[in-house]
Write a structure and sequence with these properties.
Elements: H1 6-31, H2 43-64
Length: 71
Amino acid sequence: MPKTNDAALAAFISAKTEIDAMLERLAALSADHFECSPEDVNWGDVGTLEHYRARLREITDMAFREGEHAN
């Protein structure tokens, strides 16, 4: 009897759907300047954004095989 990948496909689609929703939320937050008005930006906001950027860089480096994940 041949194996099917139905369960793996369902899990993949579920994970992709969740990622798509997270990306949408991040894009909306970015469009709103991460809820920071220019006159209120402080170094704490910069640190938070740097943290977000570092985590996203790690993800994009893995996804696109760049940085430490380059072949």
